Amino acid sequence: MSSAEDLEFKILAHPNPTSPERRAELIANPAFGRVSTDHMVMIRYKEGLGWHDAQVMPRGPLTLDPSAAVLHYAQEIFEGMKAFRTSDGGIAIFRPDANARRFRSSAERMAMPPLPEKLFIRAVDELVKADRDWVPEGENASLYIRPFMFANDAFLGVKPASEYLFLVIAAPVGAYFSSGAVTVWVSETYTRAAPGGTGAAKCGGNYAASLLAQAEAKENGCDQVVFLDAVNHRYIEEMGGMNIFFVFDDGSISTPALTGTILPGITRDSILTIAREKGMTVREEPYTVDQWLADAKSGRLTETFACGTAAAISPIGAVRTKAGEVKIPQAPGPVAMSLRETLIGVQRGRVKDTHGWEHRVV
């Protein structure tokens, strides 16, 4: 049997693709994740057979048995990445190899069969090629790509499933946040992850567990929630769906260290690399919420920003707790905007890529 990495993709023609006129209308100003492209990729896994039946097919509903393992035991993981129109008219995906590695790591943590990294990238490429006309133009526009895998084995026993589906879907998107700086709520009630848990895996359960805290943030007039560590309830970990950075008056920046409870963000890693290349002092270290508030009040802390695939870099303008609100001195600040300009410049081919981050598709 040939290697899974060498699977041939069967291309199924779409019987009724979106017209160019309708597509142009849909991608003009899409709400995040609400507009879908015409196609999807599907690859099946079965114990004893391995990965097989790779297809690029018309996007459509899935049929699941009511006892499918994902519905009962949440064996599910996903990734998020973007394809961009580049300055020379091409299309590139930002660091899909890093997404492929993290997807494999998430699968291993969730007792799921790892998808070969080369096959992961090929699957993403195939979808972007099929839906290349859905990649929008514009500074804040891109094609958001969502690879995911779940257990579709039909059984009710508590054990790793023996059958899985891997799919890739995509959606044209604009800016994640409408404009300006965001306000964040520090959750003193809920935690995102605990030592030994699944915090470093990109699995749906982590996000489901964050939704109540996110709702609490909304009730308090905030855009996002910030989680503290599960042991001491003092140390800042990450936001509901993004990593977080702090900028100080000496020009240095810091971010919470990866301890197994924080998702190792690919945008986070890119920012750390870019900052070091700009000559900044960079620290990955613990930082308490009390110190954050005190530093913001004293002026020692000048900027705070969030980062992730969806939002890229988003400045934080205020932090709220049950005790009140503290303004961040600069939002947006020059450090965050400089990092953002370089990051987006590499993604769109305007800044020289010295790390092989830009993956050309078509």
Automatic annotation (TrEMBL):
InterPro entries: Aminotrans_IV, Aminotrans_IV_CS, Aminotransferase-like, B_amino_transII, BCAT-like_C, BCAT-like_N, BCAT_family. Pfam families: Aminotran_4 (PF01063). It is an enzyme of class 2 (transferase). Keywords: Amino-acid biosynthesis, Aminotransferase, Branched-chain amino acid biosynthesis, Pyridoxal phosphate, Transferase. It catalyses: L-isoleucine + 2-oxoglutarate = (S)-3-methyl-2-oxopentanoate + L-glutamate; L-valine + 2-oxoglutarate = 3-methyl-2-oxobutanoate + L-glutamate; L-leucine + 2-oxoglutarate = 4-methyl-2-oxopentanoate + L-glutamate. Pathway: Amino-acid biosynthesis; L-leucine biosynthesis; L-leucine from 3-methyl-2-oxobutanoate: step 4/4; Amino-acid biosynthesis; L-isoleucine biosynthesis; L-isoleucine from 2-oxobutanoate: step 4/4; Amino-acid biosynthesis; L-valine biosynthesis; L-valine from pyruvate: step 4/4. Its EC number is 2.6.1.42. Its cofactor is pyridoxal 5'-phosphate. The keyword NADP does not apply. GO terms for biological process: amino acid biosynthetic process; branched-chain amino acid biosynthetic process. GO terms for molecular function: branched-chain-amino-acid transaminase activity. The modification N6-(pyridoxal phosphate)lysine is found at residue 202. Acts on leucine, isoleucine and valine. PANTHER family: BRANCHED-CHAIN-AMINO-ACID AMINOTRANSFERASE (PTHR11825:SF44), SUBGROUP IIII AMINOTRANSFERASE (PTHR11825). Belongs to the class-IV pyridoxal-phosphate-dependent aminotransferase family. This is Branched-chain-amino-acid aminotransferase. It comes from Acetobacter estunensis.
